[in-house]
Amino acid sequence: MAIDVIDLRDFYSQRLGVVARRLINRGIHAHWPNTEGQCVVGLGYPTPYLGLFREGCERCIAFMPAAQGVLKWPTARPALATLVDEFSLPLQDAVADRILLVHALEMSDDPENLLREVWRVLSPSGRMMAIVPNRRGIWTRTDTTPFGHGRPYSRSQITQLLRQTWFTPSAWGEALFVPPINGSWFLRSAAAWERVGAALSLPFAGVHIVEATKQVYRPIAAKREHSRLIPVLPPVLAPSSCSTEE
After folding, report:
1. Comparing 82-91, 179-188, 232-241, which segment has the lowest mean pLDDT?
2. Within 13 Å, how many C-alpha atoms sit on residue 103's CB side?
3. Separation of alpha carbons 96 and 40, rounded Å
4. Of the candidates 162, 222, 228, 231, which lies 20 to 30 Å from 127 by C-alpha distance?
C-alpha cells in the first residue's frame, strides 16, 4: 500500500507539490508556532514539512517506513533521516515532544498498532499531529498525487481511531481546497481557494490536519470473575467404624 519514496520525492519537486507543501505548512505552523528546545519526530514522509522545526528545535528526526524506503535528508548536511520498522521505533518510552505523521496513517497496513507505537514514544505532555487525506476531498479522487493513495478518512473515522489508540483530538484544521490541477491559473490562485474554503468551512478539503494529546491514564479492561455454579456443601460426617471386643 505504501508509495515508493522516489515517487514522493518527485511529487514534491513539481509545482503542484510545492504548492501543496506550502499550504499544509501553513496549517502545521498555525498549531505549532514554536518548538524551541523540543524533540520533534516525523514519521512517514515528513521531510517536506520538518524544515519548519529543524533550526529551532533541540532535535529533529525523520523516520521512514521500510516498505516505503528512505532518502538522505537534509541533502547538504549530516543525515537526520533513517529507515525504521514503523511498529517498533528506535526510541525509548516518552521521549518525543512533538510527532508529525505525514503519508503514514493512510499508507499503513495496521494504523492502530502504528498509533500505539506513537503513543509509546510520545511524552505525557507532548502533541501528535497527523496529516490525513479527507475522504470527501477532491485530492483523494486522483492517483496523480500521494494523497490519492492509501485509505482516506472522514473526521469521525479519525476521531474513532484516535480514541481506540489512547489519544484525544485537541484541534482540527484543513488544507488543500484548491483542485489538484497542475495548471498555472489554479496554482496562482491557491491562496484564494484556501481562504474561501476555510471561511465557508467547505467539506472538500484535500487533507485533515488533526492534533491530538496522549491519554496518560488509558482505560484498562477489567477481568470479570466467574461465580461458581456448584454450591459448596458442608462436609458429611463419615460413620465411625465399629470396634469388636475379643
Report:
1. 232-241
2. 29
3. 6
4. 222
- Provide the greatest CA pair distance for the chain: 124
**Cα distances (angstroms) measured from residue 10 to each of 50, 62, 146, 179, 189:** 17, 18, 10, 19, 23
DSSP 2: P
List helix spans (H) across the chain.
5-13, 15-31, 47-50, 111-121, 155-164, 184-188, 190-200
CA-wise closest residue to 182 among 208, 146, 144: 144
- Other beta carbons within 10 Å of 32: 18
Cα distances (Å, whole numbers) of residue 158 to 53, 70, 144, 148, 167 = 25, 27, 24, 17, 11
Residue with cell 505549532: 32
Grid cell listed for 2: 505504501
Q: Which residue has the cell 491530538?
A: 212
Q: How far apart are CA 43 and CA 105, in angstroms?
A: 9
Local structure of 61: helix, strand or coil: strand
| pLDDT tens by residue, 162-196 | 999 999 999 999 999 999 988 888 788 888 989 99
Q: Give the pLDDT score at 244.
A: 45
Q: How far is CA 51 from CA 57, 74, 75, 167, 206, in A?
A: 10, 9, 12, 26, 22
Cell numbers representing residue 219 in the block? 482505560
Q: Give me the phi and psi of 22, to 5 degrees please.
A: -65, -40
Distances (CA, A) of 165 to 90, 130, 157, 169, 214: 20, 14, 13, 11, 9
